């Protein structure tokens, strides 16, 4: 293979080995735009259609098995068809899924969650992370009587209107920043421009910028919402002391702090590991054991606004909110998610990050793993990003390269995603991580000639030093 042909060769190899996914994609496109129903899971030339999951592996429509290194974008922690979760769901299905009144599985699930995360004095259930953050913000606005939300530039909290402001995806409209030096508001297609009146984005890991916004607007701000690890914005962990500073600034300004731990429950959750108490928290993903479930909760005085017997309650309805099936699956999952499992995921994540860093160094390619605990991302470039603007710079002009790495890893039998997220299951063993690291190193070796031609700034010397003046 000549290096000029690497990209074409990778795509052809993918297409040759996935004919059933290709025909599924053609058929699906007759019903679903692009042949998929989640923007995140689509990739060029067409995504793999998956037919089955077993333990830590998934099978595609052509019968090939892949080691699952992404765990449904971090939404799963117990693999696929875990016997205890299957049994719990089967038992619940036989009793009914949504009887139309409160059920014991609601408080039984809540008791388990509260023992994992004691800041959840009271909780309410919904069906997704999008809904959880929407309701947490609604609660903050109702409690404070203020409308403005401060979020992070590149922070991802779901697909509702305010969540799609500076959310790191395609934006087609912008509005000026409220203060000089802040990123301008970037709005996704279809989000009303007026949304920018009530949402201010600040750079992650920049306490001074947040302090300036709170000084400027504090009597209008209901809450600051932040992910402890900026996920979609690049997998960037909060710098040491940053979130403690955010807590101090919000308390001093009498503004609520919402920690979006939809993705970071798998870290402990983050707030328990790092000893930080927010006013409100959101969780989703692994709390449903593979079924849709979201939760928001926190301080009793704030959450009491949802008490229907209160004087002016927030109306929180949802036909399938708190449905028994998701909660039954979630109970089985949470019963298997304690210190041992969290510690195991942490160790797998550390092993993975140090392994892929060593593999990149020995392939003489500037690529770094970043993340915390069982949540990792890989980026091309020599430096770790500190905020979403850094991530955007690291990705600029490198989407074909990221796609080729993804296709190479699929060829080697590992399911990942082009944006670089890597997540394991509690069933994953260190040997599986080591096998992935080896495949990753082989993929970088294969891509070396392509990288030398198209991205010479990413070629490093034996010492790990980049050889190009534009390396970043
Ligand atoms: C931190 C965070 N918040 C919210 C969401 C939205 O969750 P959902 O996709 O369930 O709506 C996600 C999903 O990726 C997330 O990672």
Explain how this protein is built.
It is globular, with a radius of gyration of 22 Å. The chain has 15 helices and 18 strands. The chain has 472 residues and is of the alpha/beta class. The longest helix has 25 residues. It has 2 domains: 198 residues, Aspartate Aminotransferase, domain 1, CATH 3.90.1150; 252 residues, Type I PLP-dependent aspartate aminotransferase-like (Major domain) (Aspartate Aminotransferase, domain 2). It binds pyridoxal-5'-phosphate. Pyridoxal-5'-phosphate binds next to helix 6.
Mean pLDDT: 95
C-alpha geometry: globular
For the record, what CATH class of the largest domain applies? Alpha Beta
Total domain count: 2
Poorly predicted runs:
none
Descriptors for this entry?
472 residues; alpha/beta; Aspartate Aminotransferase, domain 1; Aspartate Aminotransferase, domain 2; 2 domains; seven-stranded mixed β-sheet; 15 helices
Question: TL;DR of this structure?
Answer:
With 472 residues, the protein is of the alpha/beta class.
Write the layout of secondary structure elements.
Layout (H helix, E strand, L loop, with lengths): L5 H12 L1 H11 L20 E5 L2 E4 L4 E4 L2 H4 L8 H13 L8 H13 L5 E5 L2 H16 L3 E5 L20 E3 L9 E3 L11 E4 L4 H11 L3 E6 L2 E2 L5 E2 L4 H11 L3 E5 L9 H5 L5 E4 L10 E5 L1 H4 L20 H11 L4 H24 L4 E6 L2 E6 L7 H8 L3 H13 L2 E2 L5 E3 L6 H25 L18
Parallel strand pairs: 3-17, 5-8, 5-9, 9-12, 12-13
Antiparallel strand pairs: 1-2, 2-3, 4-14, 6-7, 10-11, 13-14, 15-16, 16-18
Helix pairs in contact: 1-14, 4-11, 5-11, 7-8, 12-15, 14-15
The structure holds pyridoxal-5'-phosphate (PLP).
The site of pyridoxal-5'-phosphate has 13 residues, from α6.
């Amino acid at each position: 293979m000549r290096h000029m042909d690497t990209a074409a060769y990778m795509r052809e190899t993918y297409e040759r080995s996935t004919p059933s996914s290709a025909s599924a994609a053609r058929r699906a496109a007759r019903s679903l735009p692009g042949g998929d129903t989640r923007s995140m899971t689509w990739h060029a030339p067409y995504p793999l259609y998956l037919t089955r999951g077993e333990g830590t592996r998934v099978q595609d429509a052509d019968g090939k098995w892949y080691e699952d290194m992404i765990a449904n974008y971090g939404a799963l922690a117990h693999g696929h068809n875990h016997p205890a979760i299957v049994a719990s769901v089967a038992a619940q299905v036989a009793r009914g899924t949504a009887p139309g009144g409160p059920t014991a599985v609601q408080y039984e699930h809540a008791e388990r969650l509260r023992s994992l995360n004691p800041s959840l004095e009271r909780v309410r259930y919904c069906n997704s992370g999008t809904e959880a953050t929407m309701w947490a913000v609604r609660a903050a606005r109702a409690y404070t009587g203020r409308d403005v939300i401060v979020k992070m530039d590149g922070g991802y909290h779901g697909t509702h209107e305010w969540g799609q402001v500076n959310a790191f995806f395609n934006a087609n409209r912008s509005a000026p920043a409220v203060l000089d030096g802040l990123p301008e508001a970037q709005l996704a297609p279809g989000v009303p421009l007026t949304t920018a009146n009530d949402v201010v984005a600040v750079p992650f890991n920049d306490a001074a910028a947040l302090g300036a916004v709170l000084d400027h607007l504090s009597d209008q701000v209901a809450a600051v919402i932040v992910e402890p690890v900026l996920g979609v914005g690049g997998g960037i962990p909060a710098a040491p002391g940053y979130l403690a500073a955010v807590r101090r600034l919000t308390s001093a300004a009498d503004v609520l702090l919402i920690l979006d731990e939809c993705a970071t429950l798998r870290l402990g959750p983050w707030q328990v590991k790092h000893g930080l108490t927010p006013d409100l928290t959101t969780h989703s993903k692994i709390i449903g054991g593979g079924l849709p479930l979201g939760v928001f909760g926190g301080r009793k005085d704030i959450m009491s606004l949802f008490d229907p017997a209160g004087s002016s309650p927030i109306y929180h309805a949802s036909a399938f909110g708190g449905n028994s099936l998701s909660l039954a699956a979630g109970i089985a999952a949470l019963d298997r998610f304690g210190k041992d499992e969290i510690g195991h995921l942490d160790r797998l994540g550390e092993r993975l990050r140090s392994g892929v860093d060593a593999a990149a160094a020995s392939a003489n390619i500037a690529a770094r793993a970043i993340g915390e605990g069982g949540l990792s991302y890989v980026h091309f470039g020599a430096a770790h990003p500190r905020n979403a603007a850094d991530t955007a710079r690291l990705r600029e002009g490198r989407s074909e390269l990221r796609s080729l790495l993804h296709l190479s890893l699929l060829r080697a039998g590992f399911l990942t995603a082009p944006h670089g997220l890597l997540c394991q299951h509690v069933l994953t063993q260190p040997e599986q991580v080591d096998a992935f690291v080896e495949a990753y190193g082989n993929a970088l070796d294969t891509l070396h000639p392509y990288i030398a031609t198209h991205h010479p700034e990413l070629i490093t010397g034996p010492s790990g030093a980049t050889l190009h003046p534009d390396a970043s």
